[in-house]
Description:
This protein is α/β, with parallel strands linked by helices. Helix content is 54%, strand content 13%. It is built from twelve helices and eight strands. The chain has helices at residues 11-22, 37-47, 54-60, 70-80, 99-103, 138-148, 162-170, 172-189, 194-215, 219-226, 232-242, 245-263; strands spanning 4-7, 30-33, 50-51, 63-66, 89-92, 112-116, 126-132, 152-156. The protein has an eight-stranded mixed β-sheet with strand order 3-2-1-4-5-6-7-8, sandwiched between helices. Helix 7 crosses helix 12 (245-263) and helix 8 (172-189) packs across helix 9 (194-215). It is elongated, with a radius of gyration of 21 Å.
Amino acid sequence: MRIIAVFGAGKLGEVLLSGLLRAGWPAGRLIATVRRAERAKELTERYGIRVVDNETALQEADVITVAVKPQDAGSLLADIGPKMPDGKIVVSMCAGLPTAFFARHLPEGTPVVRVMTNTPALVDEAMTAISAGAHATAEHLAVAEEMFRPLGRTIRVPESQQDAVTALSGSGPAYFYFLVEAMTDAGILLGLPRQVAHDLIVQTAIGSAVMLRESGEHPVKLREAVTSPAGTTASAIRELEKHGVRAALLDALEAARDRARELATPS
């Protein structure tokens, strides 16, 4: 079993570490690097993993996972790039940053795998998209899949699609939470207690998602099965269309994709 080092074990890095531990990955095969001593103590006490300096992590780990904020990736790579030993695999969790950005800072030929996961990883229901950099092989992609499969589902996509993935599934949970928030407010307006409205909406969302996944049916067909002619659902759908909800979602996803592209141009 490989040794995995998570460079910059903040919230995102901790999600990966905790998921691997839940899946049975030995704590002794996990390493973290952090900036603050109090954070190092917290991770060690909570998970029993070692927190070391960057150079030690580079020497000991087989997989170098970069989980810092995109704007901090340049300074980290400037530090570790010249010290990178041969035979390492670099896995990037940095939203928006292409593998070419890493290649500029790393020794020639270093395999880089780019991943985009999302916050449902906290409950082992993530959607993680994995892409190969110029020097990454199918074997390197398999290593990344082994790491992220315990967090939920994985899918391989060309790197050119990663900005769209970021907009759709990386940011996607926020859209659903926004919808639940709005529907809860609507339920209160219709006379329901907040907790009742919340419970109704959350279970409806879970059931609908499971039906989408398990039935294999197109969402249009499932929607039509609920929509009786001249019924309550038809009236609601008409209002959603009248207010341009579909067009607003398209615009929102394009805005998220464009922001992901902007993040790809740090110094």
